[in-house]
Known about the structure:
This protein has helices at 5-14, 43-50, 59-77, 87-99, 101-124, 137-151, 162-174, 190-203, 209-232, 237-248, 251-261, 268-287, 289-299, 339-354, 363-371, 386-410, and strands at 154-156, 323-326. The chain is mainly α.
Amino acid sequence: MRPDFEACGQEFVRGSKDTYSHYVYNGSVHGVLRSAETPLITVQGCRALCGTGTAYYPWKDSSNSITTWVLPIIGLLVQAPFESNQAWATILLLARWIGSPIAVLSYILWNIKVTGKCALMVDMATKYDEYPPSDSEFSIMRDSLYILAIMNQYSVSPGMPPVEGERLLRLALFSNLLPLPASCNDRTSLVKRRIELATNLREDRKKGVVPVFVSFLWFVFSLGLSIDLAFTDIGTNQTAHNLAIGFLMGWLPILVLASTVDRNLVSADAIRTKLNRLISDVRCALLDPEILSTYMHDTHTTPEDFSWMHSLGDQDYFPKDFFTGFGGQGRSHWHYGVAHPLLAGIESKFMAGYGRDWLSQGYAARLAIVVGSRNINGLKMFDPRMVWQILASLFVIGGSVGGAFILSCKFLTPG
Length: 415
């Protein structure tokens, strides 16, 4: 027989001064129970009067928790940036999101910062009140940096030489004069290839930001409602538990909203194929002695500037696919991306000295971007400023979960 805590509680209150006086708790009381007007029962007395069975919450209270928290949480989860037609990858990603939210949010915030830096460099490339046409040098640079921001969410082949990989990416993204070899499927110029690729990437970006935002507003409304109920009806078990659930999962809408800003593509594998094809064609062009000689003549460079190319033809170092998979939004461990080393090189080599309208320098700016800053770490470069994203994630998730535990442990309610 299941215990009836309400009936045995009333019986205890009626006999607390005589029959059950030895079950009255007289010790110190912490939290909201300090203001309780009714006597408090000991654990031994509760077992003696009510029994040791299990009592369920009434369906009214359970359904309230389901409609207030369970359904909004599910609604937020289904808006997360999962990949289509990859059930097992979706299960693993969901487990990683729930199991390591601090790491996942750190990766997402870092990629948002890098994407913002790409946008800032594009904005600084022209005058403040100037609007260049679609076929201008500014538009070409905007497409290159946009492609770089997309590349930042993909993982590089593990055996890729970091320095040579960085040089190859610079040429593929920022060179305007490198001709493509006759073996390419598409012999249009490298600039046109990047323009077409950037256009396709913009068209394939996932939409659906409004439904995510509406789900987030419903979650915030539920949290505010639970806070109001908990503090207007102090001592009620169910309202306090609802509030603790809200704090426990309070980091989830922040993570989903951040991932919405850092939205992935509709078909990550299809985009990866296009990115790899572009880099592969540039690599083939560099391995062609005639094309390389023509390029050095047009850009007034020397063989010393291409001394890093000795491993380009080695399949062990440079396999067919430059990018091996989609690693953004916490899908792979220690995913740092390829964009920041290139952006740091551009900034230190050229942009920092010229400031706004740095692209007006024309050929000098383009050559400085392609050559880079000779970073000895290549794509393996790590910026200590990423610690700020880690600390922000720790603060958001640790504060939310910690608040739930404090509420549950320090502000106990009568059962």
